[in-house]
C-alpha cells in the first residue's frame, strides 16, 4: 500500500515538473498598427474640420511620414531585435501598419524607432519599396526625403480667410529617435502593438505654432521646420 502511495506521489511531482518546463518557441509574430488623431478625434482627410491647439480651424488633406530603424529591447537581459532595412511609409489614406513577421522570442519591454530616414538612406534616392522616389516623399529637385508631410487649409484668425498649410519636414538634423516602454510582451506569444499618433503635438510642446501669425505657412526648412521636428520628437507617437 505504501509503495502505491509513493508511486502516485512521485508521478504527481514529475507531472508538475514537466508543466513548469513548457518550451518557449524560438520566434514569435509581431505587428504594429498606427492610429492618427487630431483634436481628440480620429483623423479624416478632405472634408472634416478640426480645431488646432491654437484654436484655429483646420481641414487636413494629406498626412504621411516615415517610421524607420525599429528596435525591440529587453533592458534587463540585453536581448535585442533590430529590424533590417527598416523603412516604413505611413499615410492616413494608405498603409498604417508594420508587420515585423517572426522575430526572436523575448520579454521585450522597450520599443525604439525614428521619425524620418537616416543619413545613409537619405543620401540617395535610387531605392525601392517604401523608399521608392515615386512615393511622393522624395524631394524632386534635391537628394533626400521628406520625413513628415502634412497639408491642408486653415482659417486665418486675423483675416478670417481660408489659407493653405504645407509642412514638408526633412533634412538630416530633423531625423528624430523615439523610445517608448512596452508592457505585456511575452516570449513566444504573438503580439499586436498599437501606436497612437497625436497630430496636436506637431503644433505644441515645446514649440507653439500659431499659424495665423506665421510669416509663411509653407514650412520646409530652417528654424520653423526644426521647431516642428522638435515637437514630433516627444509625445507625437506613443504606445497605447
Automatic annotation (TrEMBL):
<feature type="signal peptide">
    <location>
        <begin position="1"/>
        <end position="21"/>
    </location>
</feature>
<protein>
    <recommendedName>
        <fullName>Copper-binding protein MbnP-like domain-containing protein</fullName>
    </recommendedName>
</protein>
<dbReference type="InterPro" id="IPR046863">
    <property type="entry name" value="MbnP-like_dom"/>
</dbReference>
<keyword id="KW-0732">Signal</keyword>
<dbReference type="Pfam" id="PF20243">
    <property type="entry name" value="MbnP"/>
</dbReference>
<feature type="domain" description="Copper-binding protein MbnP-like">
    <location>
        <begin position="29"/>
        <end position="214"/>
    </location>
</feature>
Amino acid at each position: 500500500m505504501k509503495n502505491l502511495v509513493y508511486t502516485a506521489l512521485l508521478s504527481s511531482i514529475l507531472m508538475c515538473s514537466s508543466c513548469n518546463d513548457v518550451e518557449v518557441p524560438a520566434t514569435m509574430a509581431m505587428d504594429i498598427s498606427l492610429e492618427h488623431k487630431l483634436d481628440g478625434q480620429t483623423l479624416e482627410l478632405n472634408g472634416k474640420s478640426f480645431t488646432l491647439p491654437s484654436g484655429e480651424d483646420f481641414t487636413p488633406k494629406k498626412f504621411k511620414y516615415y517610421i524607420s530603424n525599429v528596435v525591440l529591447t529587453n533592458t534587463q537581459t540585453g536581448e535585442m531585435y533590430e529590424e533590417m532595412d527598416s523603412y516604413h511609409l505611413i499615410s492616413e489614406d494608405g498603409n498604417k501598419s508594420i508587420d515585423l513577421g517572426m522575430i526572436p522570442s523575448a520579454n521585450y519591454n522597450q520599443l525604439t524607432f525614428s521619425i524620418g530616414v537616416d543619413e545613409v538612406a537619405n543620401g540617395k534616392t535610387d531605392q525601392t519599396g517604401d523608399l521608392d522616389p515615386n512615393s511622393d516623399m522624395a524631394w524632386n529637385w534635391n537628394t533626400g526625403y521628406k520625413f513628415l508631410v502634412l497639408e491642408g487649409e486653415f482659417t486665418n484668425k486675423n483675416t478670417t480667410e481660408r489659407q493653405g498649410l504645407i509642412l514638408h519636414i526633412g533634412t538630416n538634423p530633423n531625423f528624430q529617435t523615439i523610445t517608448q516602454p512596452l508592457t505585456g510582451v511575452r516570449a513566444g506569444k504573438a503580439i499586436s502593438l498599437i501606436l497612437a499618433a497625436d497630430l496636436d503635438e506637431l503644433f505644441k510642446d515645446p514649440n507653439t505654432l500659431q499659424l495665423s501669425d506665421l510669416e509663411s505657412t509653407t514650412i520646409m526648412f530652417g528654424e520653423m521646420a526644426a521647431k516642428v521636428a522638435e515637437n514630433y520628437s516627444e509625445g507625437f507617437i506613443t504606445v497605447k
